[in-house]
Amino acid sequence: MAERSVIVTGGWGFVGRQALPKLLARGFAVHVLSRTAQQGDALPKGVTAHSIDLHDSDRLVPLVRSLRASHLLHLAWDTRHGIFWSSPENLDWIVSSKMLINAFIDGGGSRIVAAGTCAEYDWESGEELLREGASRLQPSTLYGQSKLAARKSLFTLAEHHKVSAAWGRIFFLFGPHEGEQRLVSGATIALLKGQPFPASIGDQVRDFSHVEDVAEGFVALLDSKVEGDVNIASGEPRSVASVLEALGQTIGRPELIQLGARPKAPNDPPRLVAAVERLRSEVGVKFPRSVDERLADTVQWWRSQAAAK
After folding, report:
1. For residue 279, is it within any domain?
2. What is the mean pLDDT of residues 130-153?
3. Which of 118, 161, 281, 302 sees the fewest Cβ atoms within 10 Å?
4. CA-to-CA distance for 296 and 199, rounded, in angstroms?
């Protein structure tokens, strides 16, 4: 077994692509398992791609066992915009995640970190901060319920086999390569084109986090001995309206933000913000830049994409 080798699922995804260079910088040999594995010159030195369907047990189990990796970073899941909340594929991911973890342990692996979600928490609690080990876990969506089931499976297997495991909960992401239907990307693209962006009144308070910072949180968590649940988020409460207004100011078209032009989604919780003491004090990660600074970075990235076309 290579002393510092990691299997990464979802390595070409939103968080995964940001995590790969950080893993390499920490000295890991990286194996990316993906249905859409990149090839040839697109691969960074130190990354090996394995093209595989993670739901294909006949191929996945022997491959994962044969890699004999020391670490596993499991990021893959169905995250298709507007679909993932209630997709039946969530149930498939519970089974496939358990199969992946078992195969990794069978191959001699000793450290597992997997991606969870703030949707595991009770969104009707009204708590100022959602805190690991204290806030109630009561998901209202199939996505959140399935993630919570996968978490239970991970910790049950880890305890039984005496391996180390942690569960990183993601809140509200934005940044490069985000799907264009999402809030920050959609607003940025519209404003850069000089188009209005209709939105709700925007008084919902959220924990917005830049994807690169979240990727650093996952890699640092993987490379630590911290176990259990860890919120990987900024801890900075921001209203949706303030984020949109910041984008408008940065782009120079604040008049294109149309707050109140759309109704809020039914049952939209008023506040979802992470407690981040574990991330900061135990994992040793504090996001280095504010949400406003990261929004400006994101605008610049989308400008560069438009200029390259």
Report:
1. no
2. 98
3. 281
4. 20
Local structure of 112: helix, strand or coil: strand
- Residues 27, 123, single domain; the answer is yes
DSSP, res 40: G
Instruction: Tell how strand 111-117 and strand 71-74 pair up.
Output: parallel
Nearest to 61 by CA among 30, 106, 93: 106
Q: Which CATH number covers residue 242?
A: 3.90.25.10
Q: Which residues pair with 167 in a beta bridge?
A: 114, 229
Pairwise CA distance, residues 2 & 110, whole Å: 12
pTM for this structure? 0.96
Same domain for 152 and 197? Answer: no
Q: Domain range for residue 304?
A: 178-206+237-269+289-308
Tell whether 39 and 133 lie within a shared domain.
Answer: yes
| CA atoms of 284 and 217, how far apart (whole Å) | 9
**Are both 51 and 186 inside the same structural domain?**
no
Query: What is the tens place of the pLDDT at every residue in 32-43?
Result: 999 875 655 578
Query: What is the reported pLDDT for 1?
Result: 47
Rg (alpha carbons) of the chain, rounded to whole number: 19
H/E stretch holding 32 reads strand 29-34
Residues 134 and 198 in one domain: no
Beta strands in 140-263 (DSSP E): 164-170, 172-174, 197-199, 205-210, 228-232, 237-239, 257-259
**Euclidean distance between CA atoms 141 and 245, whole angstroms:** 30
